[in-house]
Amino acid sequence: MVDAWATPQQVLDATGVSVTDAELTRAQASIDMFSNRVYADLSKIRARDLYWLRLAVAYQAAWEKSQFDLNSRLDASQVQQDGVVASLGDKAMSLGPRAKQALQRCSWMRSRTIHVRSPFEDGQRGYGSVLSESSDEQHHWTPMGGD
């Protein structure tokens, strides 16, 4: 049994591609590198993230199986052939596209931007909120700076 986020059967179920234990081990190593997580930390990872890691390994194993000489590739940002230029992402030569999509769904790979909700979004009453329960009749207008 291979220490990997996915089993050979799960790879077959998700991708329709049969892989050997050796191919699965190589895919696991690739995902470990790109995810910055290792299988030994299994108990520290949430169930939702484990799901995405399993899919990432499955897609990576299937993708790597169809790649030629993956470990000898040069790092390239652009490929040109017959006048057609293709721009590649920073991981395009070593990470499968569907594995990349799965990894992007892991909680630590997403943006850490915090959205602060306004009183209008969360239903709380704020200063001058049109949603407040008090009516304007309870507030008396007074001029500023006057006697």
Main structural class:
mainly alpha
* Major beta sheet summary: 2 strands, antiparallel
Arrangement of strands in the largest sheet: 1-2
N-to-C order of helices and strands: HHHEEHH
Which geometry do the CA atoms define? elongated
- Supply Rg: 26 Å
Strand content: 5-15%
Total helical elements = 5
Annotation, overall tally of beta strands: 2
* Average pLDDT: 79
Helix content: 25-40%
> Spans of 5+ residues with little confidence (pLDDT < 50)?
none
Number of domains: 1
| First-residue to last-residue Cα separation | 86 Å
Verbal overview:
With 147 residues, the chain is mostly helical. The protein has one domain. Helices cover 37% and strands 5% of the residues. It is built from 5 helices and 2 strands; from the N terminus they run αααββαα. The chain has a two-stranded antiparallel ribbon. β1 and β2 form a beta hairpin. α1 packs across α3 and α3 packs antiparallel against α4. The radius of gyration is 26 Å and the shape is elongated. The N and C termini lie far apart (86 Å). The mean pLDDT is 79.
List the helices and strands and how they pair.
Elements lengths: L7 H8 L5 H15 L11 H19 L12 E4 L2 E4 L9 H8 L14 H4 L25
Antiparallel strand pairs: 1-2
Short recap of the structure:
With 147 residues, the protein is mainly α.
Please name the defining characteristics of this protein:
147 residues, mainly alpha, two-stranded antiparallel sheet, 2 strands, 37% helix, elongated
